[in-house]
Amino acid sequence: MLHDALGRWPEDLGFTTPPGWIRPEHHREDDVKRRAFVYVTAAALVAGPVAPQHVDPALIDYFQQQLEGHYRADMFLGPHDLIGTVSTQYQLIDKLIRSAKGETRRGLLRVGAAYAALVGWLYQDAGDMDGAAFWRGVTQEIAMRSRDPHLIGYSLVNQAQVRTDLGDGHAVIDLCEAALDDAGHLVPKVRIMAMQQQAHGASLTGNREAVDRLIDQADGLLHRVDDELPWGNACRRTPGYLEVQRATCYGRLGLGEEAGALWSQVLEVVPETARRDRGVYMARHATAAAAAREPDQAVEIARVAAQIAVETRSARMVRELVGLERAMRPWQDAPVGRDLAEVLAPVTERD
Question: CA separation (Å) from 278 to 63, 273, 287, 308?
Fold first, then answer.
């Protein structure tokens, strides 16, 4: 009644509240979090056993072909429109694994790990780090069950990606070193992924020498990538893949001019159709321009990136633009700073 009348809670007005008093708004927050957790876990934690059924080995190829389509759609659409579709397909794969036998079961475990990894990535791109961490854990469990050393290494790199976004450089390095412990038995693609991710860990710990060494080593393996595995093909699919990683690391290290030069090269080869990736790269390019004390250039680049952020709803892109906002603080009271605030307003309002 006090809140309805005065718009403030009793304890804010100096009244003593009963033991265990929790504001209704907190109950609502808990309900939202609980519903979100149920949504994240529902596809992965289906109670069993399920009714036995025949599982045709041809289903493995079917799911692998679908996976490639999901990767392409992610480049065009962003995370929100795909999470439901991909997690539901994972649920079906999990159901089939419980009935499949022998090599069919092993094949489904391998493709299931790839689907779980993609769901984890979609949650990460959507900014839900709890969901991302949960699905990265599912990926690692399924990879271990498959006994596939390449997938196990891939799952460790997936875990390292989450740690990169959390800013935990030492954990990134630990996970990537674990993935590379038996590097001689890994396909070059997995080794490249682990090395470039370890470079991100090195950038988080301020080690430029390690960044360059690891990216250069990974670059020396690119010509050897010739496997037919349906997952982890960003090094084939993404133009300038390793220079993207180097530029990102340089930006994190505060090397604005060097990062900006690399981003200019990268953006020349990234197709316009890859909207989400272009938006992320442009936001990083803008931040590099700010670090190089080119605020006008930063705002012009940000103008396009902000529009893409609104369209794709990529939390990763929004996070990059928030980083740009911090980098532009020296000019916040200048006309260029006010221009940036206007450019980013649709992004921050949506966020």
Answer: 28, 9, 14, 8
Asked whether residue 17 is domain-assigned, the answer is yes
- pLDDT per position as a tens digit, 200-227: 999 999 999 999 999 999 999 999 999 9
The count of structural domains within the chain is: 1
pTM of the model: 0.82
pLDDT digits (tens, 9 = 90+) for 255-289: 999 999 999 999 999 988 888 889 999 999 999 99
Tokens at 205, concatenated: 């710990």
Domain that holds residue 28: 1-32
Q: Is 5 in a helix, a strand, or coil?
A: helix
CA-to-CA distance for 236 and 225, rounded, in angstroms?
A: 8
Residues 119, 87: Cα–Cα separation, whole Å:
6
Over the range 234-262, which residues count as b (16 or more CB within 10 Å of their CB) and which as e? Answer: bbeebebbbbbbbbbbbbbbebbebbbbb
Burial call 327-342: b when 16+ CB within 10 Å, e when fewer: bbeebeeeebbebbee
